[in-house]
Every structure is written in C-alpha cells, then in structure tokens.
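Quick one, tokens below:
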C-alpha cells in the first residue's frame, strides 16, 4: 500500500469515526429530551371495593356485617359459587342482609395520583327448589334499585351510557397504612317507598372497578381524551 492510498484510508476511517460520534451524540440528546418530556411518577395503582351491611342489633346499636360476599347456590352440577356477587334480601326487613343495610366503600391504596370508575351490576332473581336442587331465573326490571349511590355527589353517573360511575378527582392513599375511603353506596333513604318482594325473589349485585394512573391513564387505558363530564380536565 503506497503512501497516498494509506493516507486516503486513514482519512476515511477518521470520517467514519467522527460521523459515528455525531450520530451517537444526537441520539443521546433525543433520548434524553424524550425522557424528560414524558417524565412521570412510577408507583402503585391499587383500588378495591368493600361491600358490607350495617344493621341494628336488639339494643338498637349499629353493627357491621360482612355477609355472604361470594354467593353460592346448589345447581344440578353441584355447588356453584359466584365470586364477587352479593345476595341482597329484598323481602325480610329483619335480615342483616336486607337491601336497606347494604353499604359499599371504595378504598384507594394507590401511591400515585389515580382515576377510577365503578360499574355496578344488579340482577333481580327468582329462586325455587325442584327435587332438592335450587334453581334461579333472572327477572327483568325496568329500573335500577334505589340505592343511595354517590351520597356526596363526587361521581359522574354515566351508567346508562357505558355502565360506569366516574370519580371526578384524582386521588391516592392518605398514608402507607391508611387508604383514601370513598362511599359509593351509603345510608338508604327512608323516604323512598321501597317495594317488598316475595321471599322467592332476591337481588344479586356485583361491582367492577377500573383504576388507572392519572398521568395519561384515562387516555391510554379507557380511550378518553377528555373526561366524560362537562368542563372536566384530566
């Protein structure tokens, strides 16, 4: 290899090295800029539901009763358990699980700002026993049950549109061992003329909760660029 060829070879190598360094620098800058623009807090998103009953004992004192949270029924194929489904009594006012005693709380345990929505599912059910087997038939109902949903007006009721109640504020836990508690169903309104059903009827109710990180969660997980209430901003 003569001197001229060697010289051109070395120049070419230097040019390649310089271009590599320039590209690496640009890539590092763009990566740094992208990370900075999309910087967000990473943490735990955790929201659950507490379903229970509050009734008065013989001395008139309020008592909390967990009740049958996972409702079980004997079918022709054996015992069947409906996970997350609560059986509510709508015929016996003295039953701890009577409809007026039902309470539902939302416990927010997230370590980062969180939005959540809750979908209640109510099913009026007719139950009868035939040859030792309990059988259930779903009954139609024109209206939702008259629970005291959203007692403090903190939710946006979109139930007839997509099935959900949306909590309108971003929330997170109060401290490590103290969740932020929100009432979804509270004390029943005694002024409501509640229908008492035959004992063969009951209400089966369940809840689905969806929680997302406040930063871009509703947009990416729910497909909602804007909140489903007037004037709202994520």
């Amino acid at each position: 290899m003569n001197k001229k060829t060697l010289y051109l070879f070395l120049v070419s190598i230097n040019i390649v090295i310089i271009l590599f360094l320039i590209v690496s620098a640009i890539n590092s800058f763009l990566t740094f800029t992208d990370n900075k623009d999309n910087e967000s807090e990473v943490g735990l998103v955790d929201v659950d539901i507490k379903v229970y009953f509050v009734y008065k004992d013989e001395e008139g004192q309020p008592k909390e009763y967990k009740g049958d949270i996972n409702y079980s029924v004997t079918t022709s194929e054996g015992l069947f358990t409906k996970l997350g489904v609560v059986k509510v009594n709508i015929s016996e006012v003295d039953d701890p699980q009577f409809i007026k005693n039902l309470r539902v709380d939302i416990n927010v345990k997230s370590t980062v700002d969180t939005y959540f929505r809750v979908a209640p599912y109510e099913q009026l059910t007719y139950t009868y026993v035939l040859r030792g087997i309990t059988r259930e038939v779903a009954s139609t109902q024109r209206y939702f049950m008259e629970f005291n949903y959203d007692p403090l007006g903190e939710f946006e009721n979109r139930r007839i549109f997509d099935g959900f109640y949306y909590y309108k504020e971003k929330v997170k836990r109060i401290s490590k061992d103290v969740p932020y508690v929100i009432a979804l169903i509270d004390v029943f309104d005694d002024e409501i003329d509640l229908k008492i059903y035959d004992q063969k009827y009951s209400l089966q109710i369940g809840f689905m909760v969806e929680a997302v990180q406040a930063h871009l969660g509703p947009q990416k997980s729910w497909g909602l660029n804007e909140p489903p209430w007037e004037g709202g901003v994520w």
